[in-house]
Amino acid sequence: MPIWKSLVSRPDAILALVLLTAVVLAGLCAPVVFPDGPWRMVARPFIPPFTDMRHPLGADALGRDLAASLMYGARTSLEIGLVSTCVAILFGAGVGGIAGFFGGRVDSILMRSTEMFQTVPSFALAILLVAIYAPSLTSIMVAIAVVSWPPVARLARAEFLSMRRREFVQAALLSGQSNLRVAWSQILPNTLSPLIVMAALMVSMAILFESALSFVGLGDPQVVSWGYLISAGRGVMARSWWLTFLPGMAIMLTIVSISILGDAIGDSQDPHFERKEDL
């Protein structure tokens, strides 16, 4: 089923697409709208929102434009979310796919290795990795990818294990096709729906992970992110609520939008979705 049909059939997906598009455009256009970057002091401190149209979202404790910080923060948060999720999906799907396709001893070794990563709480492991390699965008993305791939591996393993027993897969193997070709052309397309939904959830979780790491002081000090803005504004929350409220709203709307779109795209890849709509 075409993705656009799934989106059109859901008003919440249309709204989510509009919101997410706005966030992406804000991140892409940040260097054009604010060529001097988010660190420049351009106004007096603690300007409330909508009181100075030159700085419509107000200014922080150092007189830096909050709108600029939010737009540059969108770039950072989306970059971390997308890159870490892509790495986790590729690695996790590869490990889980191999385990589910071959089974036996290969499955046992790979799944026991996966469980080793899951014995440590995800956020604690992410903090440990970032602290060891010093806070930076690269270390944060690697840490998030490392704690995110095990659930992907378990999902991919279950899907491949189920598909491996299907008649069309057995027929493809008996016809002489290689294991790699069968896994790539016959099994993987039928596992995309749950993987896409999980990827959307992982992007959301990656943004939350980065925000939490920045909140505890383990964010990259060279870049602005939404988590950094919340951390910087928490000390003056009683006086300047907007410094934490606006980045928090940006995080919430982005995460909800990504989750809704992931669900809609997953429905579009589900062969039973159109039948359900007809009923």
Automatic annotation (TrEMBL):
InterPro entries given for it?
Answer: BP-dependent_transpt_permease, MetI-like, MetI-like_sf
Q: Where is the ABC transmembrane type-1 domain?
A: 74-262
One Pfam family it belongs to: BPD_transp_1
Which keywords fit this entry according to its UniProt record? Cell membrane, Membrane, Peptide transport, Protein transport, Transmembrane, Transmembrane helix, Transport
Spans through the membrane: 80-102, 123-147, 195-219, 240-261
Compartments, record wording: Cell membrane
What's the protein's topology in the membrane?
A: Multi-pass membrane protein
Instruction: Give a yes or no for keyword Iron in this entry.
Output: no
Entry similarity comment: Belongs to the binding-protein-dependent transport system permease family.
Identification of the protein by name: ABC transporter permease
